[in-house]
What does this fold into?
Amino acid sequence: MNECRTSKKLPEALGLDDEALAAFYQPIIAMDTRRIIGYEVLGRAVKGDSVRSLGPFFGDERVALEDHILVDRLLREQAFAKLAQLEEPPMLFINLKPSWIYRNEELGELYTLMLLDKYGIDPRRIVIEITEESFNGSMDGLRAVIDIYRSRGCLIAIDDVGSGFSSTDRIAHIQPNLLKIDIHMIKKSATHDGYFGVLRSFSDLAEHIGASLLVEGVETREDLARSIQAGARYVQGFMFAKAEPGFRDPNCFAPMIEAELEQHLQRFLGTERYWQGQAEQLADQLVEIVKTAGYPVNADEWIEGLTPQIYEPCIRVYLCSEDGIQLSSNFCRESAKTWKREEQYRGINWSWRPYFVPNLVQLNERRRSIVSRTYTDLDSHARIRTVSILAAPGLILFMDLQDMERAAMRL
It folds into this structure.
């Protein structure tokens, strides 16, 4: 094990008891390759077989900024020296607080870039992970420094997405390559629709800004399954390994990842096939109704004639023209046999909804029905899916169905 030795006096706040500083490495695994693609560098105090985390030291706001930077630099150089010895080095995720980055820029030095030159390391192997902390400096100034790292080829990650420093406006400002989400949000999303919605929003945000999701703190197979469901490209946590003094075989977790990906695929396919089956069943039902009742002339009367034949999971039904204008009232289920008519929705324009135009383009004589993904209803706040059915040329019937399947399959 390489340990940090220095002629500089180490901070008393470290509380070293004949211990040596050592850089440890926690593996980060990619879903696409199923391989370890990199390691997060973490500080440890080591004495024989005893290993102690330096997390409390770095999290102690009473410790001087200079002392934090001194210890971090010692650990960082040890990690870079280790990386330089490998023919096919993994990526290293280096934790930097915004205040450290800002301070080093003021001093006219970026230590990480100095280490890259000193050890001849490809900058594309380094991920600058901006950790969560209160930061009152200039965001423009911070972005300018981050852009220097980026221009050299380093990747940028933001830690603890959804808390503190990593608010969405700062994510947009920094435009990171990776968004790092703590497992606690993943766990909460399993039983709380609010957290599920927030998590999905981060997944959508990552997609829109060209970033990847990394979930840390994965401890169980359930955590891994939820991370995959959330769209994580990378995962790390005790399920795979704690931080260790060395690197592992890149393929050592591949069988575990393969098995979970296969289960996820089968589960996802089963859910979507179920819903597509529901949509096709409703479309077939509508065809038979049209044969008997004809095409709609008066939209409300036509839907009112449909309601006795609409099966129970459907909680709302309405008819729109192909330009998005709602032609009918909303018909909302009150009980198995009774429906409430909400006339105030007649004339509403729904073309602004994200799903409307894509559905309109896809619906035709060969594909009469489309089912949306699960979302939260604006009025009832229930988790629903919307089935769009081509009722007649230029007319689309929308049916909102409670997502009982998602509730049953929720991990």
